[in-house]
Automatic annotation (TrEMBL):
The lineage of its organism: Bacteria, Pseudomonadati, Pseudomonadota, Betaproteobacteria, Rhodocyclales. This is ABC transporter permease. It comes from the Bacteria. It is a multi-pass membrane protein. CDD domains: TM_PBP1_transp_TpRbsC_like. The keyword Metal-binding does not apply.
Length: 312
């Protein structure tokens, strides 16, 4: 019975990491942007633009993963720039501009993607790390994954370390807490926020690239299926802390994989309800977190969503 349990558990855990990887990238990018006081609701649109750019680049280079990821990152960063110009240079409403970016990304990716519907890629094989991949249960889960999953671990470590331990992280937090004070002591607030927004766009682009080139190596219109919105919600769920965001991403990924396995096991629950479970779980968790207002207020960047124009 124990062996049978692990036989079913290991594939679920392996799938959880893959399903969570796009959320890790997109969520970390949004977290960094929000740390500087900028909320970008265009994550879904940037992911889709990154996904189609990565897929087109990979198809043009016969499935080159590195080219696809780079193209996705560049496309996501380029998509974030108009949002930055509108909100940081012109003082436009951040929420409205982010929603416009999502709508734009949906339309642009669908238009470009028409030419790539019939294509597919061979995908990416997992890389087993010697010795570590042989550890029972945990070995196959954490040390027999594709290269992008490993990259998500490294990215999480770098972002968490930068925000908590470096001068750059201190500056990012200072800009998010009080842009006026940061400007008064000589920090280029607008330039720092531009950097954070572009970084967030690049990360969202990589998240989309993972979906189209690795996770499901083909192009499907609106293939992000709301993951961009989940990534934005995860930042709140995590109360702007990278480790909690990572756990939240894995929670969502786990529920996603569980509902797929439940369908495979023939669980007598309507498939539509099973498909909705990851989103229901996210909403429930957010409701529970939002009840603790002191925790949210303690970690919420004070200038989040508020425009700042030097000399304005």
């Amino acid at each position: 019975m124990t062996d049978s349990f692990f036989v079913h558990l290991v594939p679920i855990l392996i799938g959880t990491l893959g399903a969570a990887t796009p959320l890790v990238f997109a969520g970390l990018g949004e977290l960094v942007a929000e740390k500087t006081g900028v909320i970008n609701l265009g994550v879904e649109g940037m992911m889709l633009i990154g996904a189609i750019a990565a897929f087109a680049a990979a198809v043009g280079t016969e499935g080159n993963l590195a080219v696809g990821l780079i193209a996705g990152a560049i496309a996501g960063a380029a998509a974030a720039l108009p949002f930055g110009i509108l909100t940081l240079s012109l003082g436009a409403n951040q929420a409205a501009s982010g929603l416009a970016l999502t709508i734009f990304g949906l339309g642009l990716s669908a238009f470009i993607g028409q030419s790539f519907v019939s294509y597919s890629l061979s995908g990416v094989k997992p890389i087993a790390i010697p010795l570590l991949s042989k550890i029972p249960v945990l070995g196959p889960v954490f040390f027999n994954q594709d290269i992008v999953v490993y990259l998500s671990f490294v990215t999480f470590g770098l972002v968490a370390w930068t925000l908590a331990k470096t001068r750059l992280g201190l500056i990012l937090r200072a800009v998010g807490e009080s842009p006026e004070a940061a400007h008064a002591i000589g920090y280029p607030v607008t330039a720092i926020r531009y950097g954070a927004v572009v970084f967030g766009g690049a990360m969202a682009g990589i998240a989309g690239a993972y979906l189209s080139v690795v996770y499901t190596p083909l192009w499907v219109q609106n293939m992000t299926a709301g993951r961009g919105w989940i990534a934005v919600a995860l930042v709140v769920f995590a109360t702007w802390k990278p480790a909690r965001l990572m756990l939240g991403a894995y929670l969502f990924g786990g529920v996603t994989i569980l509902q797929l396995h439940a369908q495979g096991f023939g669980v007598a629950i309507p498939s539509q309800l099973l498909s909705a479970l990851p989103y229901i779980a996210t909403i429930v968790v957010l409701v529970l977190i939002s009840r603790d207002r002191k925790l949210l207020q303690l970690n919420l960047p004070a200038s989040l969503g508020k425009p700042f124009i030097a000399g304005g």
